[in-house]
């Protein structure tokens, strides 16, 4: 301690003891936001003190002046100090600024969206002069390099790539060179960790010698193994109907797609009677040959005995089977030959 300061302190002490108590003012009670530097411990009545806001705060209301009154009390300090405000930060492209307050001493944080990396400092503080401690950072997109080209495959870029780099979110389509088949994802993406999604594999696939089909044949094909996507056509024997696809294809799995089947024709199993077939009423002996094709429909005639009228009942040929409706009654040879006018097909219709 310097001698002069000693003297100064002693001086004060003597003042304290010699002057009548209650006539001087002590340190004024001041809020935190007011600058306390240079405030003395003791003031004479009538002394005026001009208050100032602390650094980082600005006066917002009230008077700067307080006076030490004759009874040793300070007039009420009315000065109000508010923290300095910094500018609203941002915007931060491809990122977010986290803040609740932008006044002196507030800290704001910066984060980048998925697929972006923060370049710069991830926070900033509002300083006493109303500026931010750190410059706004920026969010740089993650880059991925070029995706791996699968063996026997190729890549179709959805966007042109400059300098052999790609960026987060870029995508490509993979294709395999025929006859290879693609296993995995057809579409690839540059991910947020800077890697491409896993490339698919292109593999050679063969299907066995195409199988024969019952009552049918393979048309336009050599009996050999086939590779992926190759096709084989089928046909059916005369009067057989092809049910299913005409063509089968060698699939990725090494299996053929669903095979067709050949459906058999039917015999209309009545001896004597008239049927309705192909829009015509014909006697069974005139159906030559006695054969209808798979899925075709015929009608035979039954009799309603109470009303004494006839009515047609239909039946469909399903792969060689045609059920004759139960109501159908086969007439005797005599009735058929001599009294055909009385048959259910010839009397009035119900
Ligand atoms: C900023 O980050 C710090 C530390 O990670 C955290 O304590 C604070 O709450 C964050 N502030 C805001 C406004 O998100
Ligand atoms: C800011 O970066 C520091 C290290 O640089 C890290 O510890 C902290 O978690 C980061 N804060 C936020 C909010 O990201
Ligand atoms: C604000 O204060 C900071 C640190 O005290 C200083 O670096 C900066 O230059 C100041 N800005 C202005 C505009 O006064
Ligand atoms: C991109 O990569 C290919 C092969 O890896 C190379 O031949 C070409 O020079 C590269 N281009 C640039 C612009 O780097
Ligand atoms: C990216 O791929 C490389 C090579 O396959 C691997 O070593 C690395 O761990 C991957 N990075 C991430 C973040 O998955």
Quick description:
With 350 residues, this protein is mainly beta. Helices cover 6% and strands 30% of the residues.
CATH homologous superfamily caption of the largest domain: Complement Module, domain 1
Q: Tell me the number of structural domains.
A: 5
Overall average pLDDT:
91
* Total strand segments: 25
CATH architecture of the largest domain, by name, is Ribbon
InterPro entries: Compl-Cell_Adhes-Reg, Sushi/SCR/CCP_sf, Sushi_2, Sushi_SCR_CCP_dom
Domain Sushi: 23-83, 84-141, 142-204, 205-264
Signal peptide: 1-21
Subcellular location: Secreted
Tell me what the structure shows.
The protein is mainly β and 350 residues long. It has five domains: 23-83, Complement Module, domain 1, CATH 2.10.70; 95-141, Complement Module, domain 1 (Ribbon); 143-204, Complement Module, domain 1, CATH 2.10.70; 206-263, Complement Module, domain 1 (Ribbon), CATH 2.10.70.10; 274-342, Complement Module, domain 1 (Ribbon). It contains two helices and 25 strands. The chain has helices at residues 3-18, 333-338, and strands at 48-50, 57-61, 65-67, 80-83, 95-98, 107-112, 116-119, 123-125, 138-141, 153-157, 171-176, 180-183, 187-189, 201-204, 206-207, 216-219, 226-227, 231-236, 241-243, 247-249, 261-263, 274-277, 280-283, 297-304, 309-316. It has a four-stranded antiparallel sheet with strand order 23-22-24-25, with no helix packed on it. The chain has a three-stranded antiparallel sheet with strand order 5-6-8, with no helix packed on it. Strands 10-11-13 form a three-stranded antiparallel sheet, with no helix packed on it. Strand 24 and strand 25 form a beta hairpin. The longest helix is centred in the N-terminal third of the chain and has 16 residues, at 3-18. One 2-acetamido-2-deoxy-beta-D-glucopyranose binds next to strand 6.
């Amino acid at each position: 301690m310097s001698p002069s300061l000693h003297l100064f302190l002693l001086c004060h002490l003597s003042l304290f003891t010699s002057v009548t108590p209650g006539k001087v003012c002590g340190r004024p009670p001041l809020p935190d936001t007011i600058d306390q530097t240079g405030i003395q411990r003791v003031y004479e009545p009538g002394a005026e003190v001009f208050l100032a806001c602390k650094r980082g705060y600005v006066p917002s209301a009230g008077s700067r002046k307080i006076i030490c009154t004759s009874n040793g009390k300070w007039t009420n300090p009315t000065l109000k100090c508010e923290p300095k405000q910094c500018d609203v930060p941002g915007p931060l492209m491809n990122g977010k600024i986290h803040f609740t307050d932008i006044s002196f001493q507030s800290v704001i944080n910066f984060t980048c969206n998925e697929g972006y990396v923060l370049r710069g400092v991830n926070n900033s503080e509002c300083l006493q002069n109303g500026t931010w401690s750190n410059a706004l950072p920026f969010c740089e997109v993650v880059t991925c390099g070029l995706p791996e080209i699968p063996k026997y495959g190729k890549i179709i870029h959805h966007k042109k790539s400059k300098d052999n780099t790609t960026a987060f979110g870029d995508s490509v389509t993979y294709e395999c060179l025929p006859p290879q088949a693609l296993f995995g994802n057809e579409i690839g993406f540059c991910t947020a960790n800077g890697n491409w999604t896993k490339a698919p594999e292109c593999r050679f696939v063969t299907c066995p010698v195409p199988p024969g089909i019952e009552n049918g044949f393979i048309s336009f094909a050599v009996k050999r193994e086939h590779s992926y996507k190759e096709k084989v056509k089928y046909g059916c024997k005369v009067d057989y109907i092809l049910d299913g696809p005409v063509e089968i294809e060698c699939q990725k799995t090494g299996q053929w797609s669903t095979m067709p089947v050949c459906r058999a024709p039917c015999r209309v199993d009545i001896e004597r009677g008239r049927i309705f077939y192909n829009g015509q009423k014909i006697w069974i002996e005139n159906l030559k040959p006695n054969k209808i094709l798979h899925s075709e429909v015929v009608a035979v005639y039954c009799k309603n005995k109470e009303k004494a009228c006839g009515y047609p009942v239909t039946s469909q040929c399903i792969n060689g089977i045609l059920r004759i409706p139960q109501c159908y009654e086969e007439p005797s040879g005599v009735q058929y030959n001599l009294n055909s006018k009385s048959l259910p097909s010839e009397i009035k219709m119900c």
